[in-house]
Structure formats: C-alpha cells, structure tokens
DNA sequence: AGAAGGACCAGTGGTCCGTA
DNA sequence: AGAAGGACCAGTGGTCCGTA
C-alpha cells in the first residue's frame, strides 16, 4: 500500500488527528480517500469578508448554521485555519523536512485526483448521468467532501505541466529536480523550468500538445494548461519561420 | 454539389435575396456557408424587452449603434422579423410544400453545423487555441456570423436524437418517416417516436449511448441529449430487473 | 519575496417559456 | 394546438489577487 507512505511525505504539524469525513453515497470505485486523510486544524475563521468586491454574494446555503456560539469543533485548542505547507524542490524519494512538502507529494496529489475522478465516473455511470473525462469542478467538490481538503483547483492547475513532465519523461523530470535542488532554486523557478523540456517533447511529436496529453493514460484527464499551449504554438511558429528562412520558403509548411 | 439542392429544400418566401455576410477571418475549412445563404427578412424589432425578468441585462455592447433613426437596412419593405418555417414529416427525398420545411432539410442543418465546427477547429488549430470537439456555443455563434441565421442552439439540440437515428440506422429512420407521414402525424409525434428505436440500438450495444455517439464520425460531435440518456438508463434498469426475476437473481448483473 | 487557495468572472450547456 | 428560438440560469474553466 503506497498511500500511507506517500501521505507521510506531507509534513504534518497542522493537525494530529486523522479525520474520516462523510463519503458521498455510492462511491464504489478504487480507493482514493480510502486511506487515512488529515484535515488542517479548523476553527471558524469568522465571517470576515474578503477584500474583493463580491457581486454575487455566494450566500448562506451551505453554512452549517451554528454561527457564533460554537465550541472548537475538533477540540485541538483555538488555532487559526492554516494552509498547506509550501512545496520545496526535492529529489525523487526525498522527504521534505520542516514545514514543507516535497514534489513526490505534489505528484501524489495528481494521482489522488485521478482516483477521485474514477469514483465520480463510477457514480455517474451507475446513475446513467453524464460522465466526466477530465478533472472538473465536480471532481474537486467531491474530493473536498471526501475529506481531501488539501486538494483545490488553483493548486492543481498551477502545477499540471510539472506533473506532465513527470509522466512523459520521468528521467528528465528527475534530472531537473536534482539540478534545481542542488542550485538551491525555489519552487517557482523549478516550475518555470518544466515548460522547456515539454515544448521539446512537443516539437518531436508534431507540436500537438493535446494529442500528447490525451495519449497518456494518467495525463489525459488533465486540461492542457493555457501557457503550455501558447508556448508550443509560439515555438512552432518560430521553428516554421526558421525552416522557411533555411529552405528559402517552399510550400507545404505547417502541416495540419 | 449537394448544397444548393438541399438548400432548395428549405421553403423560402421569407426573403428573396441571397445574403453573403461577413466571414470570420481565417476560415480555411470546407465549405459550410460557402454556397448561398439566405437571411430572413430583417427589421429592427424595436427595443421591446421580453417578458422574463432579466437579471443580467445582456447590455448594449454589440448593438450596431444606429438606433432609432435607421432606414430599412435590406430595402425589402417594412416586414416583420420572421421565424423559419416549421418542419413537417416528409419522406426521404420529398420536398415540403407551402410554408414548411422537410426532414431532409433538418438533417442537412446538422451537416452544416459539422462544417462550421470544422472551420472553427481549423481556426483554433492555426492560432494554437483550444480546439472544440463538439458543436459548442462558439460554433453556433460562428454560424450566425457566417450568415446562417437559421441555425440556433435550441432547435439543433431539440432534434439531435432524430438525427442520431438517421445516422445510426437510416433504413429504420426512413421507415419511421414514411409511417408517420402516412398516418398524418405532426413533427412532435415523429420526434417522440425517434427515441424508441435508439434505445433498442443501445440495448443491442451494451447500453452505452455515449460510446455509440462517439463511434459515429458525424454523430460524435453532438452532445447526447439528456432525455435519450435517461431513457437508456431506465430501460437498462428495467431489462436488468427482468433478467434478475427470470434468472432468480444471480451475481454479476449490470456489468460496467 | 514566495507561495497557497478563496473567490471571482466571462462565457457554457441546457432548456424554458413568452412568442408567432 | 403545435412549433421556433431569444433569453435565461446554474454551474464551468480559468486564474487573479487579497492573504499568510
């Protein structure tokens, strides 16, 4: 069972108690959320409205009523709601120390999302409903309900292309991780650096990044990130222009 | 060239003048809208706000400014904006008489949408943008801009399953049309009757209506209609229940 | 400064219902 | 009554930016 091993890669310290939240009825699929899941220490963060103008005021519908007069629901003392620890660049197999999470853990989150998607698909099939082929809002909602509160859309979308490199060329991905760790680069720099080898892969395969994603069983469930798509397009145009300037500009460039 | 033949199946009388509207730039695909397209006689229908409460008031953004002080833009006399003629049940090859449209014309609209989709896809590929695989809102918008004002989403969605039967079992579809024409049934009755043979086809192919749509090159670009999906699901449950009551209820029913 | 994620927003899929 | 389609609406994909 790799689940506990990998979960252990997430540096805890936010909460000590494994929490098994309500599962959506009918979940018959493979075991995402089947292992232990942890929840960050929770306390009502007050009704403090965020700064942004809220035109649509997303209403009260799902608030669990028990407003101000509420104890500390998980009994662990009045700590504030916290975020996941930030990622640091780790080598393959390396566990992050301190209040950090490593990249194996990051990639594990993508596998978990895949398992949640499979569960959502199974439920949809049983019910004869539309069956998602990608990790959609519905899947993120399901993951949250299943207790995986550490999974969220902005985070997963942010690192998709890093996961893509890991899927498509694990050796190159590992080498990049080692190089960036050695140089002491931060996660943002590593993340940026993941684009280049992906564009090179696309170049070798006719520039069709969608086809590349779709051909890979674990990657096909993720939307191609906009920036990756744009980089591939820009590079293809560059390559085509260079090719024309070399050949003197023949016909039949840019085959579709 | 079948385009003009089929276009002729649409009973005109709304407008005499072929109108070639602005094409979206870069449209390099096959020839939807390449033949003649007609526009219904147009006249500003005034700003009369519709009855429904309009929370979002879709604003002025694209109105072509020239408000009240406007001539009759297509010079054909002040007639009112009209709708397409209603469909009637026709046999294969039969042209509808009077202010009616026949079913060959209906199915031709689906082929036109497919051609518009191909154009949208070609543009997207050229630009390195996301490429739709289905007839989306974007495609309907494109069709309208290309002058095919007679194509709209509610209509196309309404008859998708009729087109599906035409694609999947043309003989059955033709037989149904002849039978319903002979009985003098209206379009609504024919449309309802198209569900049953489709469910029978699904039954023969393991109940996976999505797979059936996706396996057909001209049908795969259309979303499976909700009602058809529900009917297939309900019938599968019925069939499974019957099978259990016959077999006495074994294991391994409802294979997914 | 670097990073996590709540919340927003433009445009979608789906179809109702006022219209002809 | 039967039918065509403008317009609506809940929930989506995408990501900004106030937060820690």
From TrEMBL, chains A, B:
Subcellular localization: Nucleus
Bias type Acidic residues, positions: 60-74
Coiled-coil region list: none
Basic residues: compositionally biased ranges: 44-53
Ranges for domain Floricaula/leafy DNA-binding C-terminal: 73-240
The organism's place on the tree of life at top rank: Eukaryota
Gene Ontology molecular-function annotations: DNA binding
Keyword field: Activator, Developmental protein, DNA-binding, Nucleus, Transcription, Transcription regulation
Keyword Amino-acid biosynthesis applies: no
Biased composition (Gly residues): 26-36
GO biological process, one term: regulation of DNA-templated transcription
Region annotation (Disordered) ranges: 1-94
Gene Ontology cellular component list: nucleus
Keyword flag Transferase: no
Biological role stated in the UniProt entry: Probable transcription factor.
Family: Belongs to the FLO/LFY family.
Protein name: Floricaula/leafy-like transcription factor
Organism this protein belongs to: Coffea arabica (Arabian coffee)
């Amino acid at each position: 069972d790799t689940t506990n091993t990998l979960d252990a890669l997430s540096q805890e310290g936010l909460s000590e108690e494994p929490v098994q939240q309500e599962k959506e009825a009918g979940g018959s699929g493979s075991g995402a959320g089947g292992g232990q899941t942890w929840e960050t220490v929770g306390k009502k963060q007050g009704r403090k409205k965020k700064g942004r103008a809220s035109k649509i005021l997303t209403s009260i519908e799902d608030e669990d009523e028990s407003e101000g007069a509420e104890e500390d629901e998980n009994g662990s003392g009045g700590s504030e709601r916290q975020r996941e620890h930030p990622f640091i660049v780790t080598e393959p197999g390396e566990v992050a120390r301190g209040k950090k999470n490593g990249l194996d853990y990051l990639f594990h989150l993508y596998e978990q999302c895949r398992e949640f998607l499979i569960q959502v698909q199974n439920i949809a099939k049983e019910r004869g409903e539309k069956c998602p082929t990608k990790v959609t809002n519905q899947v993120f909602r399901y993951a949250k309900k299943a207790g995986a509160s550490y999974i969220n859309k902005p985070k997963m979308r942010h690192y998709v292309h890093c996961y893509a490199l890991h899927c498509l060329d694990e050796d190159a991905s590992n080498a990049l991780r080692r190089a960036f760790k050695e140089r002491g680069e931060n996660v943002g720099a590593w993340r940026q650096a993941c684009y280049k080898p992906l564009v090179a892969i696309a170049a070798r395969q006719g520039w069709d990044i969608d086809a590349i994603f779709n051909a890979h069983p674990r990657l096909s469930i993720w939307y191609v990130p906009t920036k990756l798509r744009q980089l591939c397009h820009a590079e293809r145009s560059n390559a085509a222009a260079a090719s024309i300037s070399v050949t003197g500009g023949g016909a039949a460039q840019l085959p579709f």
